[in-house]
Amino acid sequence: GENVEQHPSTLSVQEGDSAVIKCTYSDSASNYFPWYKQELGKGPQLIIDIRSNVGEKKDQRIAVTLNKTAKHFSLHITETQPEDSAVYFCAGGEGGKLIFGQGTELSVKP
Amino acid sequence: GAGVSQSPSNKVTEKGKDVELRCDPISGHTALYWYRQRLGQGLEFLIYFQGNSAPDKSGLPSDRFSAERTGESVSTLTIQRTQQEDSAVYLCASSLVGLEETQYFGPGTRLLVL
């Protein structure tokens, strides 16, 4: 079955800097890769997703890249703000079943 | 519109007791998912419903765990004879399968087994 590895587990950046989180997956049949943001005490919220027929997708300060050959995908957040501080999860899968990474705790220092 | 709702928000129970966790998906969403999240960990897939059938039960940890769904509506996750290792946040999500795969999550039920 699918296995998703996520790095780093914690990331601390200064406000205004960029943050990059990387994930690798094992199942070449996976075709959908969402990223979720989870704030303390809340359920995960989708921030961006990418499908396997696309190599890159951007939404304002957030971008995701996908390398199908290498089976890895990354989240890029530019011009980070303190409100970006949260736990971020990558996921991969197909047919509706998603396997999640272990999460990255991002801390943006003012 | 209304999002995914879950109840109760918190549940404290004694070891050996049964618990029922409820999920109300977004109206019109045909797919419903249950996940378990232990403290500081990622989300662990439990079960997936398409309508009221469960094509994938592969994540249920043991036969103490079961789930059902009535039509394309409410789902209940039942844990029998709870153990301390069952303590976790149980998250429910729903999606419009066939049109998009985006899963929308509820706030979760925090279960503590004493």
Number of helices of chain B: 0
Total count of strands of chain A: 11
Q: How many β-strands of chain B, per DSSP?
A: 11
The geometry of chain B reads as globular
User: Helicity level of chain B, as a percent range?
Assistant: under 10%
Distance between the termini of chain B: 37 Å
- Mean pLDDT across all residues of chain B, rounded? 91
Poorly predicted sequence stretches spanning 5 or more consecutive residues of chain B: none
> Mind telling me the C-alpha Rg of chain B?
13 Å
Q: Which regions of chain A are unreliable across 5 or more consecutive residues at pLDDT < 50? A: none
Mean pLDDT of chain A: 93
Secondary-structure blueprint:
The complex is a heterodimer of chains A (110) and B (114).
Chain A: E1 4-7, E2 10-14, E3 19-25, E4 32-38, E5 45-51, E6 56-59, E7 62-67, E8 72-77, E9 86-94, E10 97-100, E11 104-109
Parallel strand pairs in A: 2-11
Antiparallel strand pairs in A: 1-3, 3-8, 4-5, 4-9, 6-7, 7-8, 9-10, 9-11
Chain B: E1 5-7, E2 10-13, E3 19-24, E4 31-37, E5 43-50, E6 53-56, E7 65-69, E8 75-79, E9 88-95, E10 104-105, E11 109-113
Parallel strand pairs in B: 2-11
Antiparallel strand pairs in B: 1-3, 3-8, 4-5, 4-9, 5-6, 7-8, 9-10, 9-11
